[in-house]
Specification:
alpha+beta, Cathepsin D, subunit A, domain 1, 2 domains, 9-stranded mixed sheet, 6-stranded antiparallel sheet, 8 helices, 27 strands, 16% helix, globular
């Protein structure tokens, strides 16, 4: 009897260890701007510049990613005030709009009211976050932040006072950064670091599942990996830099031919970027190989009829092959089809964003400084 109790309590403990936050796949900024008929105008004024986010200038950058669509709900304060946020492994700060914000983007989003929280404390520093198309400015403060049933005490976060125009077209209210403290604006301790130091997670691991089909099923899991979301083994790849979740990429191949990242390059696994982004010349080469032509906005257009016959693209990471088929890298939007390979300018850094993560369940191990990838279930 005693033996069974021990086994049973171990199983209960295991299931209690995973804290799951469902992610909603909402409408993207691109979709809502297209519906309003102002996408072309917006695109001319705000060219897609995904690398702005990774420009290390001390302020915390974040790009105008028009295709981001996965949001989860957290709450801040006592009693809790709820916000939808992008769980972003490519940045490190948490911020939400505040009642002190007058920008258009704050008018159609939830706003935090410090006067309604008994656990709120103002910080003593301003915060500035640089975007691809303007910036978010505000103030630092601290309060209790609740994420997936985990209450993090004294979490420092940003309250926006002004926000870039494109934020008005985003469904999420704010951003929750999951990268390392070394790139946090004002050296703020990130939410996940506090979860670890406050003993709130059983393992210093979180993982991300992005469901490919519907609005349902995607989630972030804190405290481990959820075996129901992947098949086969997890392949572990050591980080080459604990700033972003950055790893070594050996090559990108199509039909056995190296088409990009010849001789190796650096790649970031980033839930806060929707596409797979690389240097212009490499991306142009991949798009040419798969039969795409680039339009005036930098979108790589393909004939929707051709998806079945387009080749797989294989990313070699840590000596292992991760293949992304055309069904995963082509997006259909209002009858138009485009590839998920985006130009990152002259930067040699690659971003493996949502297009890649939908194919491969991603496990982020902060202590061992490694990323695990497995086939999404």
């Amino acid at each position: 009897m005693m033996k069974w109790l021990v086994v049973l309590s171990a199983l209960v403990a295991l299931s209690e260890c995973l804290h799951k936050i469902p992610l909603i796949k909402g409408k993207t900024a691109r979709e809502s701007l297209k519906e309003k008929g102002i996408w072309e105008k917006f695109r001319k004024e705000h060219p897609y510049n995904p690398m702005v986010k990774f420009d290390q200038t001390g302020s915390e950058p974040m790009t105008n990613d028009a295709d981001l669509s996965y949001y989860g709900v957290i709450s801040i304060g006592t009693p809790p005030q709820s916000f939808s946020v992008i769980f972003d492994t490519g940045s490190s700060n948490l911020w939400v709009p505040s009642v002190y914000c007058s920008s258009a983007a704050c008018q159609n989003h939830e706003k935090f009211n410090p006067q309604q929280s008994s656990t709120f404390k103002w910080g003593n520093q301003p915060l500035s976050i640089q975007y691809g198309t303007g910036s978010m400015t505000g103030y630092l403060a601290s309060d209790t932040v609740e994420v997936g049933g985990i209450s993090v005490a004294n979490q420092v976060f940003g309250l926006s006072q002004t926000e870039a125009a494109f934020m008005a077209s985003m469904e999420a209210d704010g951003i929750l950064g999951l990268a390392f403290q070394s790139i946090a604006s004002d050296n703020v301790v990130p939410v996940f670091d506090n979860m670890i130091s406050q003993g709130l997670v059983s393992q210093p691991i979180f993982s991300v599942y992005l469901s490919s089909d519907s609005a349902q099923g995607s989630e972030v899991v804190f405290g481990g990996a959820d075996p129901s979301h992947y098949t086969g083994q997890i392949t572990w790849i050591p980080l080459s830099s604990a700033t972003y979740w950055q790893i070594q990429m050996d090559s990108v191949t199509i039909n056995g031919q190296t088409v990009a990242c010849s001789g190796g390059c650096q790649a970031i696994i980033d839930t806060g970027t929707s596409l797979i982004v690389g240097p212009n010349s490499d991306i142009n080469n991949i798009n040419a190989w798969v039969g795409a032509s680039t339009d005036q906005y930098g979108d790589a257009i393909v004939n929707c009829q051709n998806i079945q016959s387009m080749p797989d693209v294989t990313f070699s990471l840590g000596g292992n092959s991760f293949t992304v088929p055309a069904s995963a890298y082509v997006a259909q939007n209002n009858g138009d089809c485009s590839t998920g390979f985006g130009q990152g300018g002259s930067s040699q850094l690659w971003i493996l964003g949502d297009v890649f993560i939908r194919e491969y369940y991603a496990v982020f191990d902060a202590n061992a400084q490694q990323i695990g990838l497995a086939n999404s279930a």
